[in-house]
Design a protein that fits this description.
The complex is a heterodimer. By secondary structure, chain A is mainly α. Chain A contains 3 helices and 2 strands, in the order αααββ. In chain A, β1 and β2 form a beta hairpin. The chains are: A mainly alpha, B alpha/beta.
Chain lengths: 107, 468
């Protein structure tokens, strides 16, 4: 059996996933993740000694194109779907976001 | 002008000038006007007059003797997680409610080159997270055979649109069964090509090692024609490849997989598979029974891998460059966290949480790496089975369409609906679902044929024979 997930575990995973769960979302999430993880425990009984993990059925084979510039979407097009575009003529176009650096200068 | 139901007949009619694209499109929109308020297959629909104008233009050029592709003027619907330029691509999520794609998916580009007319975008579970199309942020789709039941999912909108006669062709996407299972539940043909056969460029990512675009149609022949249009290597998808043509043996060896016919597969579905096996024999196939012992581990393996990949893929939704952005954020972290929390639905949150947990420090070996090891055993199981059989004949859904709401409060029960469709996804092999009768409630049953990687043509050829 897996370790029982605590409310603190749920909050920690949510923070890793950049999710803010409301208080009323925590317990249902804890219960459903617990049920699913318990179901997944069955894999622990499978003997995988000396078995290499398979991450992709192509097993590393990839069709890579030459590293050459090709046609790309226009900046204007991409700016048109951005939530907060800033296109003042004095600057190259950019997207506004809230402050990234705090007062002390750290990120 | 009588409009036929299959693309093959439509093409013949267009070529013989006994049919016009305008008549085909008008018939589509008439059917949509009659039934869409109940079926609710579309998230966006091209206005009738706009589509008809496109059709008339194609008719005019064809009548003027211009050499057009034979498929020019055939309508198609596209799942809303596949990009069509200047149309919304919501993936069923509030996150992308207002997202209008600035580019075409490669598959869509190929459809347009073949002269197809895109008439709308179809409903899906959010980002492909579901098995019934109930997890869409924009309401559920109903099964055209019974409006109280689900169409399956996640390509439920596409399967329902074809089953309701709205379009002869639709594109869906299949990560763990999302083309095949709704095809089964709606009584149409659904094809999951070999992983890499169709470019995923422009398909909104769920689990990249399994995501596959696939055709939905009313006949195997039509599904095959659609695959031939969209397949092929693409510089924009490093997993895409070209495959050599393959042929079905004159006397193919068919294997029934014992694990697939045991519970939870219901008896009527199992009986349909046995009946399809009898028919396979009458069309020249030899029949054996085989075992895929790893089947019992496939579902857990699938959900770990799919959720880990999903958590990673959905990391891109940060409210910065596109998609939903929370208002009045106090910092960049606050903006990212609130944008995600406001816009993702509960199943998306659950899968992101599961994937984050299963790949986090201290648990990654126990869950993610272990699942990838078992995935190799599953693939090896298929390889072994294909040494003695050309095609596997199985169910794809353990049951026929269930009632709306029946499983939507129990995530694990919903996941269990995928138990027979996920093994092929993990192995990357092609599989096709064809309708095979109905159950006591008059609901469609589908049977699934699976082949070794790259043998899509052979699979299709035999499926055609069987379906006849």
């Amino acid at each position: 059996m897996p370790r029982e997930l605590s409310t603190a575990d749920i909050r920690k995973v949510a923070s890793l996933a950049r999710l803010a769960l409301r208080d009323d979302e925590i317990e249902p999430m804890r219960a459903s993740l617990g049920a699913v993880l318990t179901y997944m425990e069955r894999l622990q009984s499978v003997d995988t000694t000396d078995v290499e993990p398979l991450y992709n059925v192509n097993d590393g084979a990839a069709n890579l194109r030459g590293d050459e510039p090709g046609p790309a979407l226009a900046t204007q097009t991409l700016m048109s779907i951005a939530p907060a575009p800033h296109e003042a003529s004095t600057h190259p176009p950019f997207i506004r976001v809230p402050k990234v650096l705090d007062e002390s200068g750290g990120a | 002008m009588q409009v036929p139901t299959t693309v093959r007949e439509m093409i013949a009619g267009l070529a013989a000038r006994t049919l016009t694209s305008e008549a085909i499109l008008a018939n589509c929109y008439d059917t949509i006007a009659q039934r869409e308020n109940v079926v609710k297959a579309f998230l966006s629909l091209v206005p009738r007059e706009q589509a008809l104008a496109q059709a008339r233009e194609i008719d005019r050029r064809r009548a003027a003797g211009e050499k057009l592709p034979p498929t020019a003027g055939i309508p198609i619907a596209i799942k809303d997680n596949i990009a069509v330029a200047n149309m919304r691509a919501t993936a069923g999520s509030k996150m992308l409610a207002d997202y209008v794609s600035p580019f075409h998916a490669t598959a869509v580009e190929k459809l347009l080159t073949a002269g197809l007319i895109v008439i709308g975008k179809t409903n899906t579970d959010e980002y492909g997270f579901g098995s019934s199309t109930e997890n869409s942020a924009f309401g559920h789709t109903t099964n055209p055979h019974d409006p109280t039941r689900v169409p399956g999912g996640t390509s439920g909108g596409s399967a329902a649109a074809v089953a309701a006669g709205f379009v002869p062709w639709a594109l869906g996407s299949d990560t763990g069964g999302s083309v095949r299972q709704p095809a089964s539940l709606c009584g149409v043909v659904g094809l999951r090509p070999t992983y890499g056969r169709v470019s995923r460029y422009g398909l909104i990512a769920y689990a990249s090692s399994m995501d596959t675009i696939g055709p939905i149609a009313t006949t195997v022949e039509d599904a095959a024609m659609l695959l031939n249009i969209i397949e092929g290597r693409d510089d924009n998808d490093m997993t895409s490849r070209d495959f050599a043509q393959t042929q079905s043996p004159a006397q193919p060896r068919i294997a029934i997989v014992s694990e697939y016919l045991a519970p939870p597969c219901n008896v009527e579905v199992a009986a349909a598979v046995r009946s399809a096996a009898d028919t396979a024999r009458t069309v020249g196939a030899s029949l054996t029974e085989t075992s895929l012992a790893t089947t019992q581990h496939a579902l857990a393996t699938y959900y770990i891998i799919a959720c880990v990949e999903a958590a990673s893929n959905l990391g891109r939704y940060d409210g910065v460059r596109y998609g939903h952005r929370a208002k009045d954020a106090t910092s960049i972290d606050d903006m990212i966290t609130r944008s995600r929390s406001e816009a993702f639905g509960s199943e998306a949150k659950r899968r992101i949480m599961l994937g984050t947990y299963a790949a986090s420090a201290g648990y990654s070996d126990q869950y993610y790496r272990k699942a990838c090891e078992v995935r190799r055993l599953i693939k090896q199981d298929f390889d072994r089975a294909f040494e003695h059989a050309d095609f596997l004949l199985t169910p794809v859904s353990p049951s026929t369409a269930w009632k709306i709401g029946e499983k939507s409060t129990d995530p694990l029960a919903m996941y269990l609906a995928d138990v027979l469709s996920v093994p092929a996804s993990l192995a990357g092999v092609p599989a096709i679902v064809i309708p095979w009768g109905k159950d006591a409630n008059g609901l469609p049953i589908g049977v699934q044929l699976t082949a070794q990687s790259g043998n899509d043509d052979a699979l299709i050829a035999f499926a055609r024979k069987l379906a006849q």
